[in-house]
Each structure stands twice: as structure tokens, then as C-alpha cells.
Amino acid sequence: MSDLHLSHRLQAVADFVPNHARLADIGSDHAYLPIYLAQHHVIDYGVAGEVVKGPYQSSVAHVHQYGLDEIIKVRLADGLQAIKATDNINVVTIAGMGGTLIKNILSAGSNRLTGNERLVLEPNVGGYLVRQWLNEHQYQISHEVILTEDKHIYEIIVGDPALVPLHYSQLDLMFGPQLRHERNVAFVQKWQTELHKQQLVLTNLQKAQHVNIERLQQVQHQIELIQEVLQ
Ligand code: SAM
Prior knowledge:
With 231 residues, the protein is of the alpha/beta class. It has two domains: 8-167, Vaccinia Virus protein VP39 (Rossmann fold), CATH 3.40.50.150; 187-230. It has nine helices and seven strands. It has helices at residues 8-14, 32-39, 53-65, 99-108, 127-136, 170-175, 179-182, 185-207, 213-230; strands at 21-26, 43-50, 72-76, 91-97, 118-123, 139-149, 152-161. Helix 3 (53-65) links the parallel strand 2 and strand 3 (72-76). The longest helix is centred in the C-terminal third of the chain and has 23 residues, at 185-207. It is elongated, with a radius of gyration of 19 Å. Residues 10, 26-29, 49-52, 55, 78-79, 95-97, 101, 105 line the site of S-adenosylmethionine.
């Protein structure tokens, strides 16, 4: 079988999986990520977890086609229930989902985590919720990437167990503790678009017959925060 090529987004997730990792890729869909990592001898062992039967079957077929059944175990399971204690997983990837779903998967399955795993998370939206979960569960945000692919903007957030208690500010949680200082092109584009959206919301709220003061103040506050970070 020929070498698999990952999208720019999935490659950026793969780049944060260390050598000799024992990986659980949750919501694996086609299992491309663990297959790529096994082909490149990055992972020693992998679990591809999927909750939906169609993608699960596609993962099983792909892993078999690539001759990787010994290294990658495909499991039909909800979230982190795909992980068994005997897997000795030390890296979990959850990519291509909303921040709310990622947070719910982590919370519902926290009994499957030892707290020593690296978490490589790629929320399509709702990065705030993912960072908030990491902050509340003694993880430090060790790496962050924001990138554009096919006109979409993606964020990759890496959580590693925190050695000392950390408390991220609201600005850190909203914009990313590293991303907000780096402010690369994708970051500026994302927050300029968001600023524009919030300004439209504000205009509509101001035009309403019964002004919702609380919501209006919330939106004004969001706008101020975005303007502050973009300055
Ligand atoms: N991770 C791949 C990627 O980034 O390209 C696939 C992303 S795909 C958009 C999201 C996948 O997550 C779907 O295949 C969906 O069935 C799966 N999924 C959603 N909720 C899940 C859950 N609770 N447990 C396991 N898989 C889930």
C-alpha cells in the first residue's frame, strides 16, 4: 500500500504525537491519523475509536488494507470508552469536532485517563471550552497552532500534565495563551471575522424594540476584548 498523505490540518495534529507513543485517536473516522503515524513508525501502538458504525467499518477496512492490524486496534465505542487500562495509552488525539463535543468526551470519559496523557485537540469551533477544560483539569497548554486550509481556519491545542498549578486568564482561554502573542495571519483573520460578526450582532441588538441590556453588554465586552488583542 502506498504512503498515506494527510491534510495540512491532520498533519499539524500528527506533528504533536511524540515518537514511541501509545495513541488513542477518538472519532477516528477513516483512521488516517493512526495509520499515517504507524506507517512512519511514530507510534508503537494505536487505538482508533469510533462511535458510528459506518466510519468504524471504514477504519477497520483501512487499517487492514495497510497491513496494520497488529499495531492499530479499531473499536466501536463512545468517546474515551474505546480506551482499556491495558492499552497504556499516553497520547490522546481528538480532531475535527466542535469544542463542546471534545469537552463532553473528555469529561464523560475522564475515568479512562490517568492524567499523565498528552492531549492533542483540534476543535473546529469553541476553542475556549477546550482550553477551559484543560485549565480545570491540571493541564498546561504546551503548544498551539492556528492555520488555514481550504479557506477554513483550524486551531490545534496541546495539553500536557501541568507540573505546577496554572491559572489561565480569560484572554488566554478565549484567544490562546500562545496564539494571542504570536498573532499570525490566520489568527488575525479569524478574529477580524469574529469582530465583524459581533459588530453586526451589536447593531441588531441596538435596533431592537426592547433592548436586551445584558446581552448588549456581553457583546460590547467581547468586541472590546477582540479589539484589545488585535491592536
Ligand atoms: N478525527 C478525524 C479528522 O479529524 O479528520 C475525523 C473527524 S470527523 C469530522 C468526526 C468523527 O468523530 C466522526 O466520524 C464521528 O462519528 C466521530 N464521533 C463523534 N462523536 C464521537 C464520540 N462520542 N465518540 C467517538 N467518535 C465520535
